[in-house]
Amino acid sequence: MFMQGMAARLRAILMGDGEFAMVLRGAGVALVIRVLASAIGYASMILLARWMGSSEYGHYSFAIAWMMLLAYPATLGLPGSAVRFVAQYAAAKDWPHVVGLLELSSWLVFGCGAVIALITIPALLYFRAHLDPGYVAPTLVALAGIPVAALGVVRSEAIRGLRWLGLSWTPLQLGQPLLLLSLAAAMMLITAGLSATMVVGASIVASAAMLVAQWRVLRARLGTRVRVEPKIDARLWLTTALSFVWIYVANVALAQAGIIMVGFLLTPKDVALYSAAAATSLLVTFPLLAANALSAPRFAALHAQQRQPELQALVTDVARWTFWPSLVIAVILAAFGSLVLRLFGPGFEQGYLVLVILTFGQLVNAFAGPVGNLLNMTGYQAVTARVLGSTAILSVALGLVFTRMWGTVGTALAFSGGMVLWNAWLALLVVWKLDIYPSLLRPRNRSCAEEV
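Below the sequence we write its predicted structure tokens.
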């Protein structure tokens, strides 16, 4: 009866004319890509962990975490600027500015990534005596891949501004993990086993190949429009982008700093266990991430048009329709987490308690609703940056203490607590600054005008 009621409610929404119905009807390809990307990405991690073994997978996870942590500062915040301005220019048929932004952001981000790589590689070699020897080689390769990772982020967001979601997401979210698995399988046939260095290198090669393919398709789609004389407005683009830098950096720090911290303070096997648990806990927020990707443009449009009741209704629907699936996923992970982790290989079930703690943090994330996206799309990205930056610093500080005291469980407590803090903080700010109730706690019997 419950499932029948939910299905009937969903059909009613899809047939309606509200904002959430428009978002769901427009999901199509985007939602399919998100589902497939999550499934393939998670399956690839399981297969790599089984093929490599826990220690080598720990070395690999540590190296990739460093690459992603440093790739986001290299973007200079341009992904946020690119998706906004490309959409604006494309709508106005201003193709010279579209081409100029695509070219400038690509070269600037790749160059900045190369500079960061040239600085961090010698630094790693200098401090290599303080690291587990198994981390050094894969991390060196990962640092060399920073320009490719940074370029992938900004290029995909710029293409998303053109509303070509298939071209934006498919190469790196679907093609890259599939090509990586193919390369890893081929290397297994040639060599005795897979090392972390080999897989990190294969990951970078796969990303580079997908970027080349993506660029070729983009140029073909743009056709004659790509041959216009580019126009550059660097000051406007970079000024806007800088407000997004700390959001990207803080987000990736909260996602990757735990793995890096465990790598420094504990063993490669602990890194593997923590990485597997963290990746599994992210399944809880899949419904919210999918909804955010689809609803963010509507948040911006409704706010700009001062359509407060419709904005409140959309936010409430997003929160309600993403929390309940997230709760189901969280309950399944709490009940069968050990079996799920065992898919990564023998011994990974030891990360069950870490998984439960991180799952709780992700469930709070889902309960709060799209608070970060809502603030970012309504002009309060600087506020989001301050909250996420402060929370990231606090989480790292607590993580240094808790990891020494309780191992990976302490790391999970620190970063899960950080998730709870920043979601509660941002939720309060959404109510205060936008007069929007972002979660399931919205009063049902009060209009937006009365909720002051």
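The two ends are 38 Å apart (CA to CA).
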